């Protein structure tokens, strides 16, 4: 075989490899904190890892003053540079209004799509039951963060504030790495 053919085969191999390279998201930490224990408290909030490829997060928040008719969610996305710095999203959404028309806010819809298949928070207000996110799989998050709306590689923190009746009631933080 001549060197031109070997060079061509090497070039095709490199190009094929480059096309197959894709980003991968991994959960690194998960924190839940109730700011008003008379209003709500977390029954559980955990990140489980069964093997290198199967991780999920779950939470259950018990609500003590139901029905809840006025809810806002503030979502802030941070990227780690020298510490975590705000990155791309810092939005506050009236959850009751948003759930009546999810197409009204594309940024909120993007984040809602992460929870929708794994949560019981997919209906309009009032909320008269405990709120659950059950087994949100890293594979699903990976698809959302790399295929639906690709993000650059790095370490991220999504911090959400759950506000009921204009009082900050809980904070949930999800940490992950996109490599």
From TrEMBL:
SMART domains, A to Z: DM8
Signal keyword on record: yes
Pfam hit, one: DUF1091
Highest taxon of the lineage: Eukaryota
Keywords, sorted A to Z: Signal
Span of the signal peptide: 1-23
Stored PANTHER family: DAEDALUS ON 3-RELATED, DAEDALUS ON 3-RELATED-RELATED
Designated name of the protein: Uncharacterized protein LOC117142323
Organism lineage string: Eukaryota, Metazoa, Ecdysozoa, Arthropoda, Hexapoda
């Amino acid at each position: 075989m001549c060197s031109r053919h070997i060079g061509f085969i090497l070039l095709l191999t490199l190009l094929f490899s480059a096309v197959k390279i894709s980003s991968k998201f991994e959960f690194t930490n998960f924190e839940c904190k109730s700011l008003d224990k008379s209003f709500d408290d977390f029954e559980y909030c955990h990140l489980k890892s069964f093997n290198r490829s199967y991780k999920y997060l779950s939470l259950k928040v018990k609500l003590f003053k139901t029905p809840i008719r006025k809810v806002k969610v503030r979502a802030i996305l941070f990227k780690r540079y020298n510490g975590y710095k705000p990155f791309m999203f810092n939005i506050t959404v009236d959850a009751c209004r948003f759930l009546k028309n999810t197409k009204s806010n594309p940024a909120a819809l993007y984040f809602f799509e992460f929870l929708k298949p794994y949560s019981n928070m997919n209906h309009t207000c009032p909320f008269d039951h405990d709120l659950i996110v059950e087994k949100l799989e890293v594979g699903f998050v990976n698809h959302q963060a790399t295929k639906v709306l690709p993000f650059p590689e790095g370490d991220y923190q999504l911090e959400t504030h759950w506000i009921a009746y204009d009082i900050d009631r809980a904070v949930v933080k999800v940490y992950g790495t996109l490599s």
